[in-house]
Write a structure and sequence with these properties.
The chain has 332 residues and is of the alpha/beta class. The protein folds into 2 domains: 233 residues, Spore Coat Polysaccharide Biosynthesis Protein SpsA, Chain A (Alpha-Beta Complex); 79 residues. Helix content is 51%, strand content 11%. The protein contains 12 helices and 7 strands. The protein has a 7-stranded mixed β-sheet with strand order 3-2-1-4-6-5-7, sandwiched between helices. β1, α1 and β2 form a beta-alpha-beta unit. α8 runs parallel beside α9 and α10 runs antiparallel to α11. The protein is elongated, with a radius of gyration of 24 Å.
Length: 332
């Protein structure tokens, strides 16, 4: 399989050349995407990098990391590359780990691989506390919105993807800014693609982040809520119906009724009067059944994490006689 690397560039002029020189011979093409960089990273790479594999792509306007990666994906797909790796240009990602990201895809065990900086506990101790806490919270929330319960470190940008999956992604709908990595997981789940974590160690140097935490928290929460609702609707009501499709609304209704009914009568008897056994049961029983129903839905959702690689399903479909309606492109 032919491998291409996509490197979005924005304010990484001081680090980009060492990153390019560290990429091994397993890579056939390197797409450097100058995302309207104020440091003219694209021009700098063309003038200073002798590597014939490097091709510079330019944006007239800044589109964000997601927009830059989508530009690289399109170019790699158009040129016929089989696996596309996304690598940052700030030097935090070790290009020597690239074979580890490729192997699960080459073996047919995964469609998309991503880095996880939390496997090595000693490496975690060296991580800045703010990043450690922030990633832990984001990882937990992303499990709900993406449906990949086995993954951690969702904002990790070191990734590799099989072209059979990439070509079915709705590029125009994927978030172009800092929500890009987590939005990718949601989109991959709509394709039922298999995603695998790859252990890695992050390297922190003198690079500066353009991410402003206070600005992105409200946006992240709103987009996670949106993706959670869309994923549940797609997987449990639009595509398929299962016992979990009943457990979720039943649990919400019963839990809401039980808490509401109990709160109303508790406030009504706050003067000291004792509520009847029937009133207590009408509050407690729906609450307990509601909680059990929601836990059952959660258990079903965790068990239904995609396990059959999309690339294998596409290969099987290509080998079979194609009929009308065989395109699995999602409208997400």
């Amino acid at each position: 399989m032919r491998v291409a690397v996509v490197i979005p560039c924005f304010r990484v002029r001081a680090h980009i050349l060492p990153v390019l020189s560290s990429i091994g011979p397993e890579v056939a093409r390197i797409f450097v995407v100058d995302d309207a960089c104020p440091e003219s990273s694209g021009d700098f790479v063309e003038q200073s990098c002798p590597d014939a594999r490097v091709q510079v792509l330019r944006h007239a306007h800044n589109l964000g990391v997601g927009g830059a990666v989508m530009t690289g994906y399109r170019a790699a797909i158009d040129d016929g590359y089989d696996i596309i790796v996304k690598l940052d240009g700030d030097g935090q990602m070790d290009a020597g780990l690239l074979p580890a990201f490729l192997q699960p895809i080459l073996d047919g065990h995964a469609d998309y691989t991503k880095g996880n900086r939390f496997f090595d506990l000693e490496a975690v101790e060296s991580m800045p506390r703010s990043r450690l806490v922030g990633n832990a919270i984001l990882s937990f929330v992303t499990k709900f919105s993406s449906g990949y319960w086995q993954l951690f470190d969702p904002t990790n940008g070191y990734t590799a993807i099989h072209r059979d999956v990439a070509r079915y992604l709705p590029f125009d709908k994927i978030s172009h800014r800092y929500f890009f990595e987590t939005d990718m997981l949601f989109r991959l789940n709509t394709l039922r693609a298999v995603v695998v974590d790859v252990p890695m160690e992050a390297r922190y140097g003198d690079e500066t982040s353009n991410l402003k935490i206070r600005r992105i928290v409200p946006e992240f929460l709103a987009k996670h809520a949106r993706n959670t609702l869309k994923r549940i609707f797609y997987n449990y009501y639009l595509r398929d119906m299962s016992i979990a499709s009943l457990e979720l609304p039943l649990g919400i209704v019963l839990l809401t009724f039980g808490i509401g009914f109990g709160s109303y009568h508790w406030l009504g008897h706050s003067g000291g009067a004792v509520a009847s056994a029937g009133t207590v049961m009408l509050s407690a029983l729906p609450t307990l059944i509601g909680v059990q129903s929601l836990l059952a839905f959660l258990n079903y959702d965790i068990a239904s994490t995609p396990s059959r690689p999309f690339q294998r399903r596409r290969s099987h479909a290509a080998a079979s006689p194609a009929g009308p309606g065989t395109d699995t492109r999602e409208a997400a």
